[in-house]
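Progress against Task 2.4 (sequence-to-structure conversion) is shown through the following example record, which the project officer requested during the mid-term review.
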Amino acid sequence: MQKTRLLILAGAIATALLSACKKEVAEIPEGMSLEEKVGMLFFVRPESLMPELEWEKAADLEPYAIQELCPSMEETAERCFPGGIILYAHNIGYPQQLKRFVRDLRALPGNPIICIDEEGGRVARIANNPEFHLRNTVSTADIKSDISAYRTGKRIGKYLSSYGISFDFAPVADVNTNPENIIIGKRAFSDSPRVAAGRVKAFVKGMQRSGVAACIKHFPGHGDTYADTHLGYAVSHKSWEEMLGCEIIPFKAGIRAGVKTVMVAHISAPKVTSNEDPCTLSHLMVSEKLRGELGFEGVVVTDAMEMGAIVQNYPADEAVLRAIEAGCDIILGVKDFPAACQAVLDAVKSGRLSESRIDESVRRILTLR
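Structure tokens generated for the chain above:
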């Protein structure tokens, strides 16, 4: 009898875990055009809807301080139908401005999802703005318990939701194993994969309980690298087996917790992929490892495509196409949004990409609405 009870309990646990990992797939609205579907793949800055702006790198945008809707944004959205808009610190002035800007952006053609990087600590676009009078987490690494991680995720999600922001690129699921890492550091929960896993799981549950989609990043793990992919090439020298014993553990925990999205890093992992390509452009890493082996059925997001690891090594349009071919759903942060859309449309017309492949990603992205 005791053995039977244990078997029933084990089956129930397995079913619960499977249910947590499974993602619903939305239906594509009838009559949705190819142009609308392609546009939905792109989550861009407000400035990427403004072709009149001249800029080379993200820092060039700060003086513009774009914090309200303008005619050129509407015109670009009418042609390209953005799936999402990501806001940065320079787009955020004060509470009423943010509410108004988000409201206006959400009303654009394409009904874009509004998203942000609000991890807590040094990466907190809203909490680090004194106009909002919010208590900020000193750093992710200073969260010392799973319950604190849950409460932090829920609190961040609650205030994001109050401003109409429904998607947060948090939490960081990297394991901070390299003390010389210049980009992750205290953004990670811990240098212990088990501790990080517990915190990631709790943060995800707290944030998504508040109605905001969480995103675990930067798959397959940016914590053991030395370089910053914002600036250029960065590499992990670990094998997949080594990653499974460390970096992948928090990602598995986030997936089991039902996280809606995973962000893939621009790091290279030559001992896994057998080449120097960034993981964002790797079918093996995205489709075979993340989706196949780890069973993730949700939305896969690229890290920003304007980052050095991409723009220094690949033509912009080619990088977009390769990310889609790899299995990514959301293409984040392209500089020239209309050109990127046209590149995908041309690839569908030429047969390089199938419309059914675009539809796969659209169905997943629609679950975030």
